[in-house]
Amino acid sequence: MKKLIALALTLALCWSLAACGGSGSDSSVASGGSVGDSKKISATFVGVMQGGAVWGQAEAGFYAACEELGWDGQYVAPATPNDTTVMVELSETALNNGADVLIGTYYSPEIFGDVLKPAFERGVYIASTNASVGPEYQNFWIGTDPDGMGVTQAKTLVELAGDQEVTVVYMQTEATSETQNQQFAAFTKYLKDYANITVYGQEFCNSSEITAAEKIANLIKVNPQINACVCADGAGCIGVANYVDENGVQDDFISVGIDDAADMLNYIMSGALDCTIAQDFYAMGYQSCMMIKTLMDGGDVEFDNDSGSVVIKAEDVESYAAEKGITLS
Amino acid sequence: MNTLKNKENKRSLASIFFARTETGVLLPLVILLVIIGCVNSDFFAFTNLVDILRSSSYTFIIAAPLTLLMISGGMDLSIAASTALGCVVCAWGLADFHIGIFPSILLALAAGAVVGALKAALVVTFNLPAFIITLGLTKIVNSFILVTTDGIAVSNLGNESFKALGQGKAFGMVHWTIILAVVIGVSMHILLNRTKFGRAVAACGGNRETAKLAGINVVKTRYIVEIMVSVFAAFCGVCMCSRFNSGQPAAGAGTELTIMASVIIGGTSMMGGSGTILGSFLGCVLLAVINNGLVLMRVSTNWQNMIFGLILVISLFIDRYRRAKSGGGL
Amino acid sequence: MSNFVLQMRNVTKRFPGVIALKDVNLELCRGEILGICGENGAGKSTLMKVLSGSYAAGDYEGEIVLDGSPVRFTGVHDAQAHGIEMVYQEMNMMLDASVAENLFVGSLPGKNGWIDYKKLYADARTLLERAKLDLDPKMTVRPLNSGQMQLLSLMRAVSKNPGILVLDEPTTALTDQEVDTLMEILDSLRTKGVSCLYISHKLEELYRICDRALVLRDGQTINCHRIAEVEKQTLIEEMVGRKVENLYPKDEHGFGEEVLRVEHLSVPHPNIRGRNIVEDIGFSLRKGEILGIGGLVGAGRSESLGAIFGQYTMGVHKKIFIDGKEVNIRSPRDAIRHGIGFITEECKLNGIIWMLSIRENMSVANLPKLPGRFFIKKGKEKKVVQKQMTQLRIKAPSMETALVQLSGGNQQKVILGKWLMNEPRILLVDEPTKGIDVGTKADFYKIMSDLTKQGVSIVMVSSDMPELLSMSDRVLVLAGGKITAELHRDRGETTETAVMAAAIGE
């Protein structure tokens, strides 16, 4: 009996390994227009998390571009979202394995500088998404930078608030999520000029829907004046929407979500979310490769590139979903 | 003469109090309730109490069977992964396979059972260390979910009545998950204390060789407990699926340690052999009260984790003191 | 007065609600071996803990005087610094460290944090030779048997050149040859002026090695005799505080039909791969009979019982017949179903569940027989357990008391009770009275006799020669994997010399 189970487990392991290897070779065949001639360009994308509604799109855009360009592309990401240490290590590994192109969410020269600088000087093409380290470390960056995102969130809130008195909670992943902290700083700074809007502060949901829902419910018990929440975390946004939905406060509570997964769009349709801010992650993945190609071919690109973010409100949901091929309920 | 008698009575009352397994968790809980109540009396508002219970119900649905597992000498880090699996599989059943509510729930529980059986095979049959095995299973299951969902929530369940489980309230007062948690807790308590199976579980954890020599089918008992934990974890995922009306691939992420902590705070021995369901329940409530109360006391978010950690440490100290008082060994 | 190396004066130790020691006085001369005897719970261990510094000064009343000057130990280290070394009954060995490291743990030779391995192994070799242990100092301790480990822990203490050596039941795990070695070592230490406290149940040993014997009872010093001037019977009476009429109440009655027959039993060696510890043996057991199994430690006696009971199955070959019909016993469950009970030797390891109560421990082997299919009917359970507790005279506050809190003898009784609840027809018993006090021993023998009268058959493995000889109706001796002798009591063959001769294979 023991032996049988052992055999079954071993077979399962072999099968899964074979399956992984298989899918890898599939993609290389598909991209292999130029197999055999010169060495293929090796490109690595260091993402912030594995899978997920938004980073999954960046991954898809990246692979699409690699296939088009005949590059050997690989998307890697830490098992724990936003794990900076692992992101540094993944970048180092890629460079040590001869990556010609490196793309990642690099936001701080202190953290990533030591790894990026020597590689950049040696001629590796480096691009960053959604943030930048600086021109001495990289060729360019593309995306919505944290400051810009914070401002967009603030502007959206101002528009939704109108003249009413608003106290807003900023729901983010963890206290240590640096990009989100930067967003929050820009968000607060922008709102200083608006007397009717009070920023209550940051709250952390650890990417757990339940924690977010309970946090917001508890906060409102003590501070009944809280009537708005801006989310920088996707799971947190679902939790907040769930709170609004369950308590039937669609009309009295302003909620600004993030990203454009189907469940968020559904919540916008039902009124639990007032709107969501979607960034074009596909473009970040796809465009960054294309721009590096331009550089390789001797062309020029700007250092700052805004991939743009869209504020999706109830009236835009259907057209947006149709455009992106997202099915709604 | 009379006073002497009184004194003896008092001592015995104190020793009875300290002899209870649940004291280690009850004492900090009561102290915390008093402090929070003094700072903010809204804490005791009915709706807030219901919120606390609701928050504990999700953890307790897993903590109750986990208590049995830990009493039998096991541990499980893969509970959070099973929760996510249950959540996603249930959503598949509704959104992709359109098989209706109950078959979807059963499918999710079956998925949990598969994880549990695999875990049991590795831990019990091959006698591999549970810590690493369940950590490995967590990774495998999480990765399976990522591969199959691309990390995108499974939405459009298209079934309004399914929401009742996670969002609805019984008699318009308390959430169904609370009722379910109570039912599960009471059944687990009876299972542990009143049945032959429960006695076998305790014997397995207390001394495996003795249990075997006493004619208990140790392997079967441990298999059942291991599978039970994963099934209930998957059920917790079903509740989350219903609450958020979608299959979240990260449902329950990071809760495995807090759930295990609440079981241990509740007086269950990490070595196995002893523990109570009531203790685990109080452990879950304690953690929920901390989360809820600190916000109500307007403790700054940055400080909350420190207080959380301190209370964990203190409650284990009380537990140690209690054990020394009552003269029980480990 | 300073011819006393050690004096303990009016030592009293209180625990909440209990006085463990009351005005105990003890005097030890230079180069003397003082035996300390008493029932379990007489206060021997507590006294030793006071002396070893486990209870720091201030935890007890009274004083300890070394070489005429009072000392106050702050802890075990302090006592060791004063030259007091303990050899405990439980051997604290690091199983995966080498023999040499175990011998010199805490005092490894070398300087500046580096270990001088050459010196370590050389020193270890000298010690091993003294103990007549033919071991490589570099091998790990794990494969050693408990006798060898016990000698190692003795040598560990000896290596520190103590002024006073304290031994707590040192011979429980030893074979007779090893006991001889132990005695030689103690004797040579005595001539070198080392003093020794020797705690033992075995009066024979006290007579063999000690100069004087101190009797403790209920935490009090009863008497101190020059061993040459006192009768065994007197010591026993002082220890139990009552006359022990007959320790071995064996009454004669006839035997019935054969109930158990074992054929072709082979059991693999627990430590050596590919070798059998017992090779193709067989025996039979009649109704109401006590079959004793003698032999040296390591002859495979316990392993044979385990194999019959289904505890070990890997590599075991056996044919078992109950009432003449062949049965298949693949697990303890099967054995219990066929009415067999098994009281294991290492009760602390395999017999009891520390944290559970008496009630739960007792009913754990009887779950299928308790009334009710799935649920346990607590009322009925309590009644059955209470019956056993009264019958076996188990001393405990209540049946809810956890086993940790009971004395060794009472724990052993709980195990017995657990199997008796099942009303077994055949009882396998492994070293039933190892390490328990005289009073409880007598209870045990009485119970066993009563059981056989009721028709229960018993297979008893015992290293306690008087017990084996006087309780068994028939004695099998195992040596070298075979049965080397079958001795019948009714034919007057069961003598100490006959058993010993067969055991050492002569």
TrEMBL record, chain B:
GO terms for molecular function: transmembrane transporter activity. The keyword Nucleotide-binding does not apply. It is a multi-pass membrane protein. The keyword Transmembrane applies. GO terms for cellular component: plasma membrane. Keywords: Cell membrane, Membrane, Transmembrane, Transmembrane helix. The chain crosses the membrane at residues 52-70, 77-95, 101-124, 131-153, 173-192, 223-245, 303-321. Its main location: membrane. Coiled coil: none annotated. PANTHER family: ABC TRANSPORTER PERMEASE PROTEIN YPHD-RELATED-RELATED (PTHR32196). This is ABC transporter permease.
Automatic annotation (TrEMBL), chain C:
The lineage of its organism: Bacteria, Bacillati, Bacillota, Clostridia, Eubacteriales. The keyword Nucleotide-binding applies. GO terms for cellular component: plasma membrane. The keyword Signal does not apply. It is found in: Cell membrane. Residues 6-243, 260-505 form the ABC transporter domain. Keywords: ATP-binding, Cell membrane, Membrane, Nucleotide-binding, Repeat, Sugar transport, Translocase, Transport. It is a peripheral membrane protein. One of its GO terms (molecular function) is ATP hydrolysis activity. It comes from the Bacteria. This is Sugar ABC transporter ATP-binding protein. Pfam families: ABC_tran. InterPro entries: AAA+_ATPase, ABC_carbohydrate_import_ATPase, ABC_transporter-like_ATP-bd, ABC_transporter-like_CS, P-loop_NTPase.
